[in-house]
Amino acid sequence: MKEKTKEKTVVLKRYLITLIIAAAPLLLMAQSRLIRPGDSIDIVVYGHQELSRVVTVNSAGAIDFPFMQNIPVDGMSLDELRRFMEAQLSRYLDGQPVMTLSFTDTKILLVSVLGHVKNPGTIQLTPEGTLQEALAKAGGPLPGASVESINLIRTEDGKTQKKQFNLYRLNLLGDMTHNPTLQNGDIVLVTGSSIFSSVKIIGNVRSPGVYEPPQGATLLDMIFLAGGLDRNADLSRIRYVSPSAKQSKEFEINLNDYFAAPLRYELPRVLPGDIIVVPEKRQVWRSALTMIGSVSSILSMIYTVIMIERYTSD
């Protein structure tokens, strides 16, 4: 009986040694792999299920975790990150926390969509995400965007390449060669005319010019961007022209009505390409001075004629 138990123990030891030897390369590989933007990390905190979760490294190379915000992890190993997180969590938990960290198979693509789109910035895509999906997540191209020449900038092996794709051919002809699959770190650049992506504000504001409209901006927001109204502005006759709407619109807005009842008066939300014209007040005294000046000129002429007649008659 003792001999059988001894044999089983020897077999079990051999099995464990074999298992450790087989798993060693995988463990070494996991430790040698460094964390990069787009990686997904499965974090398990034993005894604290509420803290266990999968986190994704953002484009800045950081992650968020309870009690720890915006942790820079780009270039760290999983073991380095684990030791750091255990030290931080030990300040908030009873006892020394026990954690395991591992890379997950689910990888998120981080792609930058810039230029003439509604919401430029870094977006997340699932693997095999396409150019069309990236543009849709960025809110789509703005009016005036050059959709026939969308730029895809990709860096591989230290070399940067730029290719152009035509959304017209994709959407109208179904040419799928213009809807490439994206890779992590790709940059999608949508060019276009700034005239159609901004709002022009002219007239009696402190800084007339062309301004990029923030998302959801109203007519009054754009006036504030232009420095606000000057003292000669006529609040009752502000013209708003929206050629970029589905149907071109032009109407007059009385800001006095809005200031009198801001909760009942809804100002229009501007679109790229709109024009706001702030006119000058009608100055009654200027008209009166002009009239007085004209009358004075006539009286001076009459007086001059009378004096000439008297001089010649003498």
Structural write-up:
- With about 325 residues, the protein is α+β, with helices and mostly antiparallel strands.
- The chain folds into 4 domains: about 30-105, wza like fold, CATH 3.30.1950.10; about 110-190, Outer membrane lipoprotein wza domain like (Outer membrane lipoprotein wza fold like), CATH 3.10.560; about 200-280, Outer membrane lipoprotein wza domain like (Outer membrane lipoprotein wza fold like), CATH 3.10.560; about 285-314.
- The protein has 7 helices and 15 strands.
- The chain has helices spanning about 1-30, 80-90, 130-135, 165-175, 220-225, 255-260, 285-314, and strands at about 40-45, 55, 60-65, 70, 100-105, 110-115, 120-125, 150-155, 160-165, 185-190, 200-205, 210, 240, 250-255, 275-280.
- It has a 5-stranded mixed beta sheet, covered by helices on one side. Strands 12-11-15-13-14 form a 5-stranded mixed beta sheet, covered by helices on one side.
- A hairpin with a 5-residue loop joins strand 6 (about 110-115) and strand 7.
- The protein is elongated, with a radius of gyration of 35 Å.
- The termini are far apart.
Structure summary:
The protein has 314 residues and is of the alpha+beta class. The chain is 32% helix and 24% strand. The chain folds into 4 domains: 30-103, wza like fold, CATH 3.30.1950.10; 109-190, Outer membrane lipoprotein wza domain like (Outer membrane lipoprotein wza fold like, Roll), CATH 3.10.560.10; 199-278, Roll (Outer membrane lipoprotein wza fold like), CATH 3.10.560; 287-314.
